[in-house]
Design goal:
It is built from 4 helices and 9 strands. It is α+β, with helices and mostly antiparallel strands. The chain has one domain: Beta Barrel (Lipocalin). It has a 9-stranded antiparallel β-sheet, covered by helices on one side. A hairpin with a 2-residue loop joins strand 8 and strand 9. The chain is globular and about 40 Å long. The termini are far apart.
Length: 159
């Protein structure tokens, strides 16, 4: 009897995890691997916040069905996940588009140069307080912007 209950529980957990992955391709645990200055940052008004790097780089972020666990500004209770397809100009809450509009490099070129080869770009919007969007460069790599920095994540367990 106990074995049947255990097997039923495991099947329900597996199916719940599989459904979570279907709805949210970022479900699971990721590690923030590196950070770089955002393309729109400069040495005048939009300074990259290099001092925040240790709070994020090397840390894990877990996207679960009812929460996001991770460093302070990324953690979230009750996210409302929504996947969208973004053009290059829409990346990082429009940061690449704003850069292009102000006379900088084209958003398409900038997105490609920093690691987004495919279009449209799959983006996870969380609906959390800090409105951090996660842009996927492929199934196992994603990036988000914070304080004029781009942070890159890699899905745990992938090369």
């Amino acid at each position: 009897m106990h074995l049947r209950l255990l097997l039923t529980t495991l099947i329900v957990l597996f199916l719940g995890t599989a459904q979570g992955h279907a709805d949210n391709p970022m479900a699971g645990t990721w590690t923030i691997m590196r950070a770089e200055a955002a393309p729109w940052s400069d040495n005048k008004a939009d300074l990259p916040n290099w001092s925040a790097m240790p709070e994020y780089v090397g840390k894990r972020v877990t996207f679960a069905a009812g929460r996001i666990d991770g460093p302070r500004l990324l953690a979230c209770e009750k996210p409302t996940y929504e996947m969208n397809d973004f053009p290059a100009a829409g990346l990082f809450q429009g940061g690449l588009g704003t850069l292009e509009d102000s006379g900088g490099k084209k958003a398409e070129d900038t997105a490609t140069a920093i690691g987004f080869a495919k279009r449209p770009i799959k983006t996870l919007m969380t609906g959390c307080e800090h409105s951090i969007d996660y842009h996927m460069s492929d199934a196992n790599h994603a990036a988000f912007a914070l304080d004029n920095m781009i942070y890159w994540l890699k899905r745990d367990g992938t090369p």
